[in-house]
């Protein structure tokens, strides 16, 4: 096992609901939480989620944030293979998140389309933006790009795209420190340490809700937990629908 692997494993207990609440409290003590349209204020922090896998986990984190009195921005993914954003079970959780005062934003995968570098990409972004507005009655305030590290950052450097603040726009990247929990580990910097040191005047923090669970577990198990939870919920929905209409449900 490499040193990097050992360090990552030692941080698995960072990713619990209890520790999440603690991180919010640490951040509040050192920064003011702002929303993406207000980015750039001194000693401020942008707290953001890319919801790739579990909207139910996102809803739980949204409640913790509400309890702590901080706003966050939820970048929801119309093209996720893990969830159907427009299904009743998932869209209900999105509406709950918004009812808690958090902001709606678009998580967009350019590679879903045949040529992510073409001018047509902007019209695709506008289409997905409008789907969210129509479904949830709130205009997305910002956009983030799925698997941004695999893309050419020069292609998506504009600060504003389709009327939305670009989380990876040049100005934000130049003026804000950045911390991410991608793949369920701190790939570059541990958030707890960054908040304790508070050396940077402005921060953008990206988390993915599926990594934050009640108990300690490795990342792949957290993914499986979300998959199994979704499958169980769909099965329950089917059983309840069959029973409601008095139809047979042979097992």
How would you describe this structure to a colleague?
By secondary structure, the chain is α/β, with parallel strands linked by helices. The protein has helices at 3-10, 17-30, 55-68, 88-99, 120-136, 170-175, 191-197, 219-244, and strands at 32-34, 44-51, 73-77, 103-108, 142-145, 160-161, 164-166, 177-180, 202-207. Strands 1, 2, 3, 4, 5, 6, 7, 8 and 9 form a nine-stranded mixed beta sheet that branches. Helix 2 packs across helix 3, helix 2 (17-30) runs parallel beside helix 7 (191-197) and helix 3 packs parallel to helix 4 (88-99). The chain starts with a helix and ends in a 7-residue tail after the last helix. The model has no long low-confidence stretch (mean pLDDT 91).
Give the quaternary arrangement of the chains.
Answer: single chain
Low-confidence stretches: none
Topology order in helix (H) and strand (E) letters: HHEEHEHEHEEEHEHEH
Strand percentage: 15-25%
Tell me the number of strands. Answer: 9
Please report the number of helical segments: 8
Global Rg: 19 Å
Tell me, what's the shape? globular
How far the N terminus sits from the C terminus, by CA atoms, comes to: 46 Å
The major β-sheet equals: 9 strands, mixed
Q: Average pLDDT value?
A: 91
Structure class: alpha/beta
Question: What share of the residues lie within helices?
Answer: 40-55%
């Amino acid at each position: 096992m490499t040193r990097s692997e050992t360090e990552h494993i030692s941080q698995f207990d960072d990713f619990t609901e209890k520790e999440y609440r603690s991180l919010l409290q640490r951040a509040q003590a050192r920064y003011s939480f702002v929303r993406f349209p207000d980015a750039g204020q001194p000693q401020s922090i942008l707290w953001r989620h890319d919801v790739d896998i579990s909207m139910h986990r996102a809803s739980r984190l949204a409640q913790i944030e509400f309890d702590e009195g901080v706003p966050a921005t939820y970048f929801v993914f119309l093209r996720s293979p893990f969830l159907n954003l427009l299904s009743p079970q998932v869209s209900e959780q999105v509406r709950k998140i918004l009812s808690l005062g958090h902001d709606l934003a678009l998580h967009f995968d350019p590679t879903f389309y045949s040529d992510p570098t073409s001018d047509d990409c902007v019209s695709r972004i506008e289409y997905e933006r409008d789907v969210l507005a129509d479904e949830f009655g709130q205009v997305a305030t910002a956009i983030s790009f799925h698997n941004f590290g695999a893309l050419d950052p020069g292609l998506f450097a504009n600060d504003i795209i389709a009327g939305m603040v670009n989380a990876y726009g040049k100005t934000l990247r130049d003026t804000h420190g950045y911390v991410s929990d991608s793949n369920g580990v701190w790939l570059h910097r541990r958030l707890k340490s960054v908040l304790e040191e508070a050396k940077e005047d402005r921060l953008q923090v990206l988390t993915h809700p599926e990594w934050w669970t009640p108990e300690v577990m490795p990342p792949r198990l957290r993914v499986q937990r979300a998959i199994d939870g979704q499958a169980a919920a769909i099965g329950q929905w089917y059983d309840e629908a069959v029973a409601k209409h008095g139809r047979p449900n042979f097992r």
